[in-house]
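ARCHIVE CARD
Drawer: 12
Card no.: 0347
Subject: one protein chain, sequence and derived structure
Cross-reference: see card 0346
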Amino acid sequence: MNNQAQSRRNEHLTWVYDQLQGCGEIYLEPAHLRTLQILALPTHVSDDGEVLFHPRFFKAHPARVLGEYPVNQSVMGPANPPRGVPPLCDPPSLEKELWNHVHIADDGDRIQAARDSLADRLSQYWHEWTCVQRVHGHIQSHILAPRFGRPEGSTLCELGALQPSLLQEVASSNDPPTASTCANNMNWQIEDLLEDSSRNTNPHTIMSVLTEVDAGAEPASLTLHEVLAAVTMMRIRTSHGPWTSNAIHPLLMISYTGDGCGRITQVSLHGETLILQYSPLWDFQHSDSAPVELFVRYYLSGLGSVSLMDYANPDADALTGLVSSLTLDTTAGGSSEKMDVS
């Protein structure tokens, strides 16, 4: 992109960011986002759980890495801080609390004590920010834990095409904040930034977004925090650094929401056109069905090529046609069901 086009793009992203900052809605439907010149499109999911983005800038790591590289518990001891994987706790239940109070002989007293304890535990369990951090921390612990089959001192991160970067070194003091409670007085923040370690080859990046919002209440929409985080990172990457002149900026956004759900969104900036292709919400409330390995594999993504000839500065109508085959109704809130790909 020439300097004039870059300047025009930066002005447009600033305008979009300002509109989002003044937005009174917490759930943004695709039609609403279109008024901000953002294309938001729900996507299909394949039989093996992969999100079918198009164009496919990010490809989940092909191996089942958690089974192939078991956690190495032997390196955890007094000389090493524990780096295992904390359990992904299921919601408290009355059955569990009755078992915890089995020492109370009287049936009525035991049931009442169990109910009181359950109410307290549920309140703690479903506190939105605690819920978000529990799921996010579980995924990151899997990635950072020492594992058999990996070189000593390495983690699963080295299996991916992108490597961790310090957010404070990427963002400048003039950039918009990467964490805030201003939007609807709810917490959100960007974490786990992954970039090309050579800093001059691939414009791709991966990041986590944590938000207190209960995304399952409006599963067909994106949350304001997710969109704001995506625009924030695009402003950072297009205003300074090695990729400011790139016409295309691919970003994989892995979201964790206040209701214990997760979502994977491919964000791509084509000139001044921003596209968000988002998966359905996955449920992390039950450890036996939570798609932990799929999320880990997306952090370790391989990269699809960026074709300037095909995708540089396309207009909105052309981009709508490009991804129209992926548009369909979303499933019910918090569902772990896969989208129909037939």
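Annotation on reverse: Residues 92-125 form one domain. The chain has eleven helices and 13 strands.
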